[in-house]
Amino acid sequence: MDQILVIDDDVELCSLVGEYLEPEGFQVESTHDGKRGLERALSGEHLLVVLDVMLPGINGFDVLRRIRNTSRIPVLLLTARGQDVDRIVGLEIGADDYLPKPFNPRELVARIRAVLRRTKSSETAGEPVPEVLRVGDIELDPATRTVRQKGNVIEMTSVEFNLLQALLREAGRVVTRENLVDTVLSRKFSPFDRSIDMHVSKIRKKLGDAENGTDHIKTVRGVGYIFTLEREPVRSGAK
Length: 239
Prior knowledge:
By secondary structure, the protein is of the alpha/beta class. It contains 8 helices and 12 strands. It is globular, with a radius of gyration of 18 Å.
C-alpha cells in the first residue's frame, strides 16, 4: 500500500486525513513535530508528504528547505487561509502544491492524486521512451527526468520539470496559463491562482534568465508564456 506522510501538530486533523486517505488505497503515517517529520520525510518510505507550515520546533518552511536539500519527494503544503505570503514562500522553496486550511478532505485527496499523477515517471512499462527535447542550450530528457543547460544538470522539482517540458514542447508558441494549470497542476484554472507564475519564476532563475541579458521564457501579458526559439535581450520592465 502506498504510504503518505502527514506532518501536522493537529492530531485530530491527522486522524481525519487518515480516515479519508486509507479507503483510497493509501497508508497514512502521521507525525506531529518538525524534527521527527523531517527524519521520516527523508526515510525514502513515502510517496508524498503533506506538510503544515505551523509546526512546533522546526517550522514547515525549514522542514521543506531541508527536504529539498537532498530529496525530490512531492510535498503538498498546508497553509493558513488568506496567507498568500505562505503560499508564495512555499512554492519558492520547492512545494509541489498547497492547500489552505481549513480544507475539504475530499479536495486534499484530489490534490494528492493530482500531484502523484504529475510526478510519476513518464517511462512506464509498455510505453515508448519519450524523445529528448532540445531547444537552444536546454536539453530535457523525459526518460531520466533530467534537465541540462550547456551540458550542466539543472536540478528541478517535479512541477518545474513538467512545466518546462510543456513549454519546450510548444517552443516558439504561446501556452496559456489555463492550459498550463490543467496540464501541469491537474486542476481547474482560477485567475487568482498565481502558482504557475511562481513556478515559472523559479525556472527562470535556475536557467539564469536576465542574468546574462537574455530570456528563455517570455511572459505574454494576460495570456501565458512562451519558450523562445531565439532568446531576446531583456528589456527594461520586462518580466
